[in-house]
Write a structure and sequence with these properties.
This protein has 118 residues and is mainly alpha-helical. The chain has one domain. The longest helix has 27 residues. The chain starts with a helix and ends with a helix. 24% of the residues are buried. Keywords: Membrane, Transmembrane, Transmembrane helix.
């Protein structure tokens, strides 16, 4: 079974997810960080990764997406307040999570097609 089409489709999805990431970085990231300004994990990541590609904003976008996806784990470690995550509007949550899920699923598809090809 050839999995090259899966890898190619995943690569196309990844290339198409970059404009979505850039849009979310420059229009929605600050708003999301304002909702999570009482969370020590988000504040620490914001000041720790303030450098790099896009000023570290891509890392911060992915960290916020992970916090939105599994807030109970971060609450258990006393890093994030789940009330802050619940206060976020659903559209903003979608704009934070969608680029992360697109990027990670396309990465997984490319890795799977690479590992399973002959």
């Amino acid at each position: 079974m050839t999995l090259e089409p899966l890898g190619m489709i995943s690569a196309i999805i990844m290339m198409l997810s970059y404009p979505i990431c850039i849009y979310a970085i420059y229009t929605k990231l600050e708003e999301a960080e304002d909702y999570l300004k009482l969370s020590t994990f988000i504040v620490t990541v914001k000041y720790r990764f303030g450098f790099g590609l896009f000023g570290g904003k891509l890392k911060r976008l992915f960290v916020i997406a992970i916090v939105i996806l599994i807030p109970k784990l971060f609450q258990w470690r006393h890093l994030v307040l789940t009330e802050d995550v619940r206060r976020m509007p659903k559209r903003l949550k979608l704009w934070m999570v969608l680029p992360f899920l697109l990027t990670m699923s396309s990465f997984a598809g490319m890795a799977l097609s690479w590992f399973l090809t002959e």
